Amino acid sequence: MTVNPADDKSKTAVAFPLIIVDFGGLTEAQLLGAAKVLRDALAHVPSGYQAEGAAEAEVAARRGETDWLGFAALHDERLVGWIGAIKVYAHGWEIHPLVVAPDRQRQGVGSALLAALEAHAHCEGAATLFLGTDDDYGGTTLFDVDLWPDVLSHARSAEVTERGHALAFYRCHGYAVVGVLPDVNGLGRHDVLMAKRLG
Ligand SMILES: CC(C)(COP(=O)(O)OP(=O)(O)OC[C@H]1O[C@@H](n2cnc3c(N)ncnc32)[C@H](O)[C@@H]1OP(=O)(O)O)[C@@H](O)C(=O)NCCC(=O)NCCS
Description:
The chain is α+β, with helices and mostly antiparallel strands. It contains five helices and eight strands, in the order ββααβββαβααββ.
């Protein structure tokens, strides 16, 4: 699938020509590129993949799973982002991961990858896409807040801080906050759960 800036009518137009390809068909060099993008995109996140070999191990593990599928965005053969999903339920897939190379962020790559996954998931009969988006650095107003006992009222009030967070990206694409897993990355470091109805 080719996404050209000139004919891209999506919500966030891509800033340069992109090709979206099946993750299963990537070359060894592109797979190393996928690991680098994973490491670099999450460098600001304590729960990222900074340990030596961690990003490469994650790429290998995902590729080996029969219930996982993915797409990669290529620009001039360089892998600039990728998205994956796990078929957790018969009609509900979990997005994991979605990462864009830091020098290519805010140029429409993430939106193009998400659109490709949503179209494919819808075609395959998925009704819902969902994800957990961690905040262990202060990107949302939930960071460092004790969410108990009324966790859901905090979930309803979640906003993005000036540090920026993927929550804003997903909201812009129709995903709603459907819950929070409190303290799962340490006290005050929560995982925000989001979902979208397809179709
Ligand atoms: C989140 C991410 C995947 C988005 O991909 P992207 O290619 O940068 O996003 P797009 O250019 O398609 O953005 C579309 C819109 O989403 C919103 N958005 C994207 N990233 C954002 C951020 N970090 N903070 C706030 N809003 C954001 C903006 O409204 C943006 O439009 P604008 O640039 O015109 O304002 C990418 O920035 C990334 O890899 N971030 C680090 C890793 C990460 O957080 N992954 C998600 C884990 S769940």
